[in-house]
Amino acid sequence: MGFLDKLKNKAQKAKGRSKEEAGRDTRDPYLEAEGRRDRMAGGAKQVGEQAKDAAKEARDTFKR
């Protein structure tokens, strides 16, 4: 819903992407898995924010 929440989610996805790449480069499967987990968590939170926005728009539409 908030701009900061969306920004934090994008930052988490970016951090996960870099961890995943670092894990691949160093052949560290644990770091790669941790990066994948961070990236997926950020994406899931982003979907939640989009659902909140859609619900708010629907509520505002029927409010009139």
Automatic annotation (TrEMBL):
State the similarity comment: Belongs to the UPF0337 (CsbD) family.
**By what name is this protein known?**
CsbD family protein
Q: Report biased composition (Basic and acidic residues) as residue ranges.
A: 17-40, 50-64
Entry's Pfam families? Answer: CsbD (PF05532)
Give the organism the record lists. Answer: Actinomadura rudentiformis
Q: Which residues form a coiled coil?
A: none
Domain CsbD-like, first and last residues per copy: 5-57
Region: Disordered, residue numbers = 1-64
